[in-house]
Amino acid sequence: MDTAGQTGTVPSSDLVELLQRVGSRDGRLVHLEVISAREGRTAEWPAWADPDLVAGYRALGVGAPWVHQVAAADAVHAGRHTVLATGTGSGKSLAAWLPALSAVRGGPREARPRTGSIASYGRRPTVLYLSPTKALAADQLAGLERLLSAAQIRDVRVTTCDGDTPLTERDWARDHADVVLSNPDFLHYSLLPGHRRWQRLLSGLRYVVLDECHAYRGVLGAHVALVVRRLLRLARSMGGDPTVVAASATTAEPSLTAARLIGAPEEEIVSVTEDSAPAGRRTLALWQPAIVGGWPGEGVDLPASDGQDEPLSSGPRRSATTETAELLADLTAAGARSLAFVRSRYGAEVVAEQTRARVREVDPDLPARVAAYRGGYLPEERRELEQALRTGDLLALATTNALELGVDVSGLDAVVMAGWPGTRVSMWQQAGRAGRAGADGVAVLVASEDPLDAFVVHHPETVFGVEATTFDPANPYVLAPHLCAAAAELPLTDGDLPLFGLGGTELLEELERRGLLRRRPTGWFWDIARPERPQDLTDLRGGGEPPVQIVEAATGTVLGTVDGARADSTVHPGAVYLHQGRTFVVDALEDDVALVRAESDVSYRTKARSTSSVRVLSVRQTSEWADRDGTTVVWRFGDVEVTSRVTGYDRRRLPGLEIVGSYPLDMPERVLPTTSVWWTLPESACEAAGVGRDTLPGALHAAEHASIGLLPLLATCDRWDIGGLSTALHPQTGQPTVFVHDGYPGGAGFAERGYRAALEWVRATSDAIVSCGCADGCPACVQSPKCGNGNSPLHKEGAVRLLSLLLRCAPNGPGPD
Known about the structure:
A hairpin with a 4-residue loop joins strand 23 (632-653) and strand 24 (658-664). The chain has 23 helices and 27 strands. It has 5 domains: 12-37 and 279-295 and 312-463, P-loop containing nucleotide triphosphate hydrolases (Rossmann fold, 3-Layer(aba) Sandwich); 51-108 and 123-272, 3-Layer(aba) Sandwich (Rossmann fold); 476-537; 548-602, no CATH class; 607-809, no CATH class. It is globular, with a radius of gyration of 27 Å. By secondary structure, it is of the alpha/beta class. The N and C termini lie far apart (57 Å). Residues 1-8, 111-121 and 294-314 have low confidence and may be disordered. The strands form 5 sheets. Strands 1-9-14-13-10-12-11 form a 7-stranded mixed β-sheet, with helices on both faces. A 7-stranded parallel β-sheet has the order 4-5-3-6-7-2-8, with helices on both faces. Strands 22, 23, 24, 25, 26 and 27 form a 6-stranded antiparallel β-sheet that branches. It is an enzyme of class 3 (hydrolase). Residues 298-321 are annotated as: Disordered. Residues 326-479 form the Helicase C-terminal domain. Keywords: ATP-binding, Helicase, Hydrolase, Nucleotide-binding.
């Protein structure tokens, strides 16, 4: 949800010309798509709207609302759950705040004392706004304060309340705030468990605003849906009757997404999807990094891929981060205000560092106008960066997707995306940061070293269209801990079963058998004798481990945080850590703290090495594929235990990242209980297919990597949401085996989706490897950026032969040669 702002500073035609000039030299500019401008359509202000609010909007330059804003606001005002799914910069905020703030102002000035009834009569209406990120909530607060100031409204009290909010400010929010801006994490860990202290807010709750709800997909989406349902349940029990208004980017089936978030029938949701806001001309460039010099261009003799006249890759290419830094430097030198979206925190720091180095050669003052922005920064540092970007003090910002979701950074000229963001929605959200408020904008998608990226830039048609946001609140691994939390908040009864998608009491009875719930005549209660808090049974973001603080040893300054699950591989002793262009080396990692020291001259980076093993706990489903010769491939899906340990790290010299040294580490084992899909086949069949004992480990390893890279085509996941293991002889299966498992405790449904779509998955994996023109395997086919074994061993041709064997055995397969 965003507000209007100033336009860009450099004509988009000049930036397009720059991209064509740079990209035409060696074919890096694969495709250029131009989307025509669109005029806006306005409507009259609703008669029910508070006149002071209308005057405030007019003072801010909104003379008349867009047609879609009025359609959504009318539905919300009428008490209908509403989802507004329109493009970036279409002013979705107004559709929520106009009815919400009008209701607050139209209610009693102060809540009347209760007289024993929990009815909401006489209570001052309240509003709760939820966003995926703290940055977006802070941005919305700034926008609301500008609106209320312009409207000269002083009787509406607005504040943010999240994990960074001091206790005294939380007390004020509980006692006085009419509008509270927060996030699902704060609800889960603080507000809902302490709901009795928030009774004033909940009993008067009139509207719940779910911003950027398309971001809630996969495991996070399932968690957030259950948090929202718990919120609505408590509010209704206290006499509130909240109407939900959801804001989303353009997606397929937005009403279904909203219905699944709040646990309501789809027919009860009003969906507004026609975007009537003006839009400038948008230019999207699809970009593939240059091939590294010296590549011989010789390929192995592999069969042609269906529908592919030419291979998607003909050799190793420069990294997407290096290419992005170069483009960002070119744009900065041209005076453009730009964002670069990078997939990882480390990558954002690297892009900012490389961009500073490049622009320093043009103007020694330009590096000060380039910065990084990512999770793990302290709140005050994030706010300073956001403000500097708004004012233009910063020209370039390398960021993670933390700035994808609605933060008002109007006036940008260009966006560069380092790698496919994972979904079309995310890509257009990121691209839409440029050219907001009807201005022209330019966006560049730089393909990373990933099979999906190579496919996308060579198939522009895959970029367009819309997709549904998918998540499964009924996943028992996600649902069970939320049922425990709900029972602690208010005893569960049979009347709550439909809200949580339960057709019966089986899951509740299982929780009772495990000693988590107790059954009484009045419902299901949390067992208060247990030592843990029910909200601590799950982590909305999927990690499950506390964050590790990164502290500068010499000063005691907290530089940031890193997820606990990633700490062993990112801030182990000896690791290089980057923070806003400064380089640190980790001295120690203990007690959830990484102690670092500043180093001004570090000519290397570090990458961890690890080992892992998979133990099968139970098999839930089994299927067999067999050809006419009797060769049988067995597919299984079930519960596994993944044990991993970081064993050492490599130092890699800049800029080429060649290994210059390897060092051992003594780190603890990490055990992940999860779900997996795996397939096995006889060693004799592998030999008959031309994959002998010497090449079998590398062939299985390559097939595993490619499978992980292609599963996101079929499941709503990212390759970082899943992991895998391959072995020529697994101790439990007794055969060559490939595992692909979910990366979340208890599973997330991705591996199960792979099991159900096994044939389509194998075909896509085989095609991706065959269509790549490299000789021995590259990041666009069988190499993996997350491999703990340094991508060794790998055997590309062997992987093709194994996958061909699987397809020969598959139902309706080609049969034996």
